[in-house]
Predict the 3D structure of the following.
Amino acid sequence: MKICCIGAGYVGGPTMAMIAKKCPEIPVTVVDINQARIDAWNSDTLPVYEPGLDEVVKEARGRNLFFTTEVDKGIQEADIIFVSVNTPTKTYGTGAGKAADLKFVELCARRIAEVANGDKIIVEKSTLPVRTAESIRRILAGSGKPYNFQVISNPEFLAEGTAMEDLTEPDRVLIGGEESEAGDKAVAALVDVYAHWVPRERILTTNVWSSELSKLTANAFLAQRVSSINAISALCEATEANVSEVARAIGTDSRIGPKFLKSSVGFGGSCFQKDILNLVYLCEHFGLPEVAAYWEQVIAMNDYQKRRFVDRIVKTLFNTVSGKKIAILGFAFKKDTNDTRESPAIYVCRDLLEEQANVAVYDPKVTPETIYRDLQTDASDERVSIMTDPYEAMKDAHAVVILTEWDAFKDYDWQKVYDNMLKPAFVFDGRNILDLNKLREIGFEATGIGQGGKRGTM
Ligand code: NAD
Ligand code: UDX
């Protein structure tokens, strides 16, 4: 048994590293067309920052875990091929702005069809619209080769920042296969891989369409919770209710539960927006405009939350931020990752720059190149400075804006920060991680998200 994974990204890298660690007798090869990314996977500085990932890669790399650009060889040698390439929102043609761009998935299917030299199990690891397996099957069948190609769905539920924990102890592993003898056999082969470390009762098997649709549905439900609590945060700010208290009160209802109720400047990441838009597009495609509108509102609320946060900053800073230095703490879309895809920080910084502010950005893991790229500018831009020292970023600033919930931010010497800032010194905590009352005692004018009332400090 040999495994190949096409796509060495945030999903392909960590998931294959975990399989290699837990199944030392199975050779696992991760292939990618991006030479720089493969080089980074083979170096001491991995392209993905994820707590605990370095150790797992170090343990397995060279033993039964390999990273290479030799895509064809990887395909030919493997019995099971995971497809873990990116599926971004389409930017052109039919479905632009909503549908998933399946060009990379299709290219993989065509490559497999062209070079395969035996039976293959093809595993959809990428998040895909329901019924994609059908298209992949048709492409594979088009090769006219005498081999058996089984396409099964095995969506990945890991969240960035906790990927290694999520992979070690998943709530469940979902595997969807064709309802046939060959389909059952392919599903069983993949179940055997996961059963090396995941208890059998946590490995759910379904038909392939349910599996594809469950992934989009899970992300839509999670994002909906964040948008729901963020909608209430706006009402809290208008009424002196406190969103953290409301979240605690409703989260203790066992029917609701405490998770995904943290109000924030808005959700980000490569998945939520893309997957909900994809769901919206599917609903429209299948003639269900009311269902599409229902889910689209989750995105609308998220856009509103980001805009609302910037409006509040500008209003509080006497209706103008023009020429003012605003320190931005955190650029990643959440803590413990170097990923900035769809990070609210991008939108907040862009809006502040539009208001002619100067931003000084600090993030412990995101590189300056990434920040400049995301803000569509470069080092020659005097309005954007990227700092390696957070205290330097906040020195002489009019305001500090927290956009990622990095733990280290809580332990800063906030008295020292205050002493070095212009007065009045403002703090806008877009993640509700700081003790606002303590900051106020120091002298800050401090605001969180939905933090009405005096006790509401978390
Ligand atoms: P990514 O952009 O980090 O990685 C994708 C990789 O695929 C890139 O390195 C790219 O070079 C490579 N690639 C693209 N086309 C290729 C081809 N034809 N041949 C070889 N390599 C190719 O993306 P990601 O974040 O790892 O996401 C991958 C998929 O997993 C997406 O469908 C995403 O929705 C899904 N997913 C992501 C997460 C997450 O947290 N990032 C979680 C669950 C599921
Ligand atoms: C998500 C899904 O959780 C994961 O299962 C899927 O496989 C990929 O997409 P990810 O995007 O890595 O994972 O992070 P997640 O923890 O879901 O957070 C998404 C966004 O929501 C982040 O910007 C986060 O800060 C925000 N969020 C999350 C909140 O604002 N409040 C919360 O209570 C939870």
